[in-house]
Amino acid sequence: MYSSSDTGREFSNKAYLNMELLRFTTAGSVDDGKSTLIGRLLYDSKSIFEDQLDAVRRASLKKGGEHINLALLTDGLRAEREQGITIDVAYRYFATPHRKFIIADTPGHIQYTRNMVTGASTANAAIILIDARNGVTEQTHRHSYIASLLGIQHIIICINKMDLVNFQEDVYNKIYSDYRTFADKAFPSQKLWFIPISALFGDNVVKPSTHMPWFKGGTLLNVLETVPINNDHSQIPGRFPVQYIIRPENSSFPDYRGYAGRITGGIFHKGEKVTVLPSYLTTKITSIDTFDGSLDEAFPPMSVTIRLENDIDISRGSLIVPEKDLPTESNNIEIMLCWLNPKPLELNKKYGLKQATTSCRCLVHDIPYILNINTLEKISDGNNIRMNDIACVHIRTTQPLFFDPYTLNRTTGSLIMIDEGTNETVGAGMIVQSC
Amino acid sequence: MNQINHLNELESEAIFIIREVAAQFERPVLLFSGGKDSIVLVYLSRKAFWPAKIPFPLLHIDTGHNFEETISFRDKLVKKFGVQLIVGSVQESIDSGRVVEEQGYNASRNVLQTVTLLDTIEKYKFDAAIGGGRRDEEKARAKERFFSHRDEFGQWDPKNQRPELWNLFNGEKRPGEHFRVFPISNWTEMDVWQYIYREKIELPSIYYTHTRKVFNRDGVWLAWAPFMKLKPNEKVEEKQVRCRTVGDITCTGLTLSAADSVEDIIREIAATRVTERGGRYDDQRSDAAMEDRKREGYF
Question: Do B51 and A301 touch (CB under 8 A)?
Fold first, then answer.
């Protein structure tokens, strides 16, 4: 069933040193063939090793299965293998001569929305699987909406099991137009790709299908290797959350004072005038330092150390931004909240909050609506937010936050809520606006 | 268009995590095994805090069965980077009766290390231990968070991990609890070697080909040492070998190899069909050997 191909691990050092990194997540209902698809991608890109395959073969036989069950490759925990379900996000890695890939493989059950949110939060692309026999379902809506809400640039719709519908173009066309109708309503500006595949036989996964000559697009791997990775940083304002202060206090660097952090938006230049928040004092970047030398400019996702002309009060949680491009400041904020904990949200209870490198406390005081994630209906009289719910809420914070809308900046626009009793991460918030 | 390549992105991510540790915790420590992953962590830590020194000590859990080359390399490295080294000794744990030495042919101090590690973490009140674990190494590690919570007994609860979203890391904890932090979670074996190549990182000589007295047990080449008990059918021979991973002598399978440069090793890894830990005796005790050890507090 599996044959090897010529993609994969034979690449030169030089090429490898210059590869791009694409992070993607996969979502699909339980029997859509997600594990088979991942198995196919890993196998055809020669990323599964013999001893791994042996272990999976042994485990499959032990459980009485007839075929090698590639789901066992991704189910890492004892409980997952015993129960035959995926509980947690698993990360997989593979590379082709063009790109290196990180897969966040998330479970498909309804009750695992929180895992999908987790996997999607760092992804550049999402693969949504649709069973060609079943067409677009509520699950498809849910997975697609979450992917879009989490700001994933590229959604790749794989219409799987085409072999079970005789590779018919009609079936593909019907699903394509159904999905388009839904997408035009739910997220009109989202970038979408459609590919008819058979994960089991490999059609249009790594190699073009001989069964579907009517399909003119590229294979899945082709799309994964070529979709643009967001890199136009000049389109969004510069944002540098200060993470840590570097003060060597030694004889070689007696007066060195640098602000360490990771650039999360825009491009910063040496000599640029900047504003430091929350003090609103302005100064100039005198140097952008790294161990490997100083830089004239720096952009996401580089970790650097910035030095400033004036000695001003800066600590962890401060935000350095271009003088003329300030973020919003507010302590009354509207967010889209995904609840992650079995214990429901309590209105007006104090929760810990982390946003960029800032920590403070917050409370939820109003719930404009809870989203029915399958029908996308807004339920305005709900006040009980439970695990896996997604809702629009209003929060008040103990100190003003400096933020951008999530749609503009995934770092300054996101936050997590922490239960102060258990220290667990209970909520994930995407900032909409001040309110 | 500004785009950084994947090695720079992984490096930047690791530096970000290492700085988060220094910012969020009071008494961090870096778990140093003498293996390539923990060596890479030391180099990344230097980049994270330059021109200041690395603001935490290194902790080595010494089973007493280490390759000699690892120990002398460790001592040189500590001097070069000007960091403090703390050694937790498994021999001392055995002598004080905290653990009992395993018996038999496959006796190893690998499992015993956990007790020494947790005792040392408690003794120095470390609240974060940075480790070189990677998700591509092993299936239980594929489920590991960057910031991984450990309860007051040092245990990991894999079914009840904190969700980790975006780049927001929740290091909140109660007194007595600690975190394990894995800055190179997203690196593959190939990434690590490419980084070693690019950054010209020095490694212990056992990673390169050398002649060694070895014997074969169930298809795995193990190094001979006075404390290794041979079965009647096993015989010691001299072979050209190198280590693909470095644990202590009792559990490190050796690769027959003539690779004597990083480029050779990269070519070898690109062609291999066996996983990195395929030769690790400690992982082969059961299907869930790693998960079970990690629950107890292993690296």
Answer: no
